[in-house]
Design a protein that fits this description.
The protein is an alpha+beta fold and 352 residues long. 37% of the residues lie in helices and 23% in strands. The protein contains nine helices and twelve strands. Strands 1, 2, 3, 4, 5, 6, 7, 8 and 12 form a nine-stranded mixed β-sheet that branches. It has a three-stranded antiparallel β-sheet with strand order 9-11-10, sandwiched between helices. Strand 4 and strand 5 form a beta hairpin. The chain starts with a strand and ends with a strand.
Length: 352
């Protein structure tokens, strides 16, 4: 008598920052999953939210069919996400029962912090845990409240409510759909984003490496927004060039040989760095710059994945021999050892 929902994290291959302005992004789901379970409470017990990241914390709550929720002790981020979800569910026709059930909700995203085999640390990896938790929670609540069918837009609504409409939504959609996708956001809330499935190009190799530093996407986006508003004369041309590079890479992904994709990836990385130099966002942290120089010395293209500033970087090559050299050179920085372009998306099972 338990509902279990899982959703994967992601690596952004391309489209960083440009996707916010309407360019195409390529995103890859990875096998690190957020899990949300909903089970019954013991007789007479209050509903409770348990949050598992690097430890467990339990927060009793009460909720109502109008979408309101009360925590005597504020659970911060995950509690705000649950509040955002209830607000969105309350907008759905007849989504919430008149009497809300007494339940135990557990949100487990420990896999987005744990770094197996390499170091004993609880630093956040930066694989889109917030989006994965959002998708898993939306899926679990939809099952609880009897909402069937495609709930991708509902998950986007929940994330937008939680993030105050910041971000492009690519991480939410990739977590929902799984696999590797091309994504272009919609600026009309009534129109779904454009997405299509992608496969991995033959002859192209990628090595994800972790900087060992956690980055704040919210802080980086705030710097980006300040630059855009303060320096429109330089922002416009720099963003136009980055968008062109991102769109060209996405268009070539399935139709060009690996050597051409290497050129397109190098151009995208160069334009992303140009924008960072102008804006002072901090996308290319000292660690990213070091990785880029070391990768270039071996003959690979390097770029940060996602907002940058830390988290993951991606190394690309069209040579298996170069990939072996990279793997040896960066052995201590490889924490995502197995990845594919076919990781599954949202999965929900069970009943209450």
């Amino acid at each position: 008598m338990t509902i279990t929902a899982t959703a994967p994290g992601k690596l952004l291959i391309s489209g960083e920052y440009a996707v916010l302005d309407g360019a195409a992004a390529i995103s890859l789901a990875v096998d690190r999953h957020a899990t949300v379970t909903i089970g019954p409470c013991s007789d007479g017990a209050d509903s409770a939210l348990t949050v598992r990241t690097t430890g467990d914390a339990c927060f009793p709550f009460s909720w109502s069919s109008d979408g309101s929720i009360d925590f005597p002790v504020d659970p911060a981020g995950r509690g705000s996400l649950l509040r955002a979800a209830l607000i969105c569910f309350s907008r759905e026709p007849a989504a919430l029962p008149v009497t809300m059930p007494q339940v135990q909700i557990t949100i487990d995203s420990a896999g987005f912090y744990t770094v197996p085999d390499t170091m004993n640390t609880d630093i956040k990896l930066g694989l889109g845990s917030s989006a994965a938790v959002c998708v898993a929670l939306t899926g679990a609540l939809a099952k609880l409240f009897g909402i069937a069918g495609d709930i991708q837009q509902l998950a986007l609504d929940v994330h937008h409510e939680f993030q105050k409409k910041a971000g492009s939504g690519v991480d939410v959609v990739n977590s929902y759909q799984g696999g590797m996708i091309s994504y272009r956001r919609s600026f009309d809330e009534n129109i779904a984003p454009q997405t299509s499935g992608l496969s991995w190009p033959q002859g192209l190799y990628m090595l994800p490496v972790w900087t060992g530093e956690a980055a704040s996407t919210t802080e980086l986006l705030a710097r980006f927004d300040r630059y855009r508003d303060a320096e429109p004369a330089t922002f416009g041309p720099a963003m136009a060039e980055l968008k062109t590079a991102a769109d060209s890479l996405e268009a070539a992904w399935q139709n060009q040989p690996a050597v051409s994709l290497m050129d397109a990836l190098a151009l995208h990385a160069r334009k992303l760095k140009d924008l960072d130099t102008l804006a002072g966002v901090g996308i290319y942290s000292a660690r990213h710059v070091d990785f880029q120089k070391r990768a270039a010395a071996i003959g690979a293209v390097y770029k940060p994945s996602g907002a940058g500033g830390g988290d993951f970087g991606l190394m690309f090559t069209d040579s298996s021999a170069t990939l072996e050299q990279l793997s040896a050179e960066f052995a201590g920085d490889i924490v995502l050892k197995d990845w594919s372009a076919t990781a599954s998306g949202l999965h929900v099972e069970g009943a209450l």
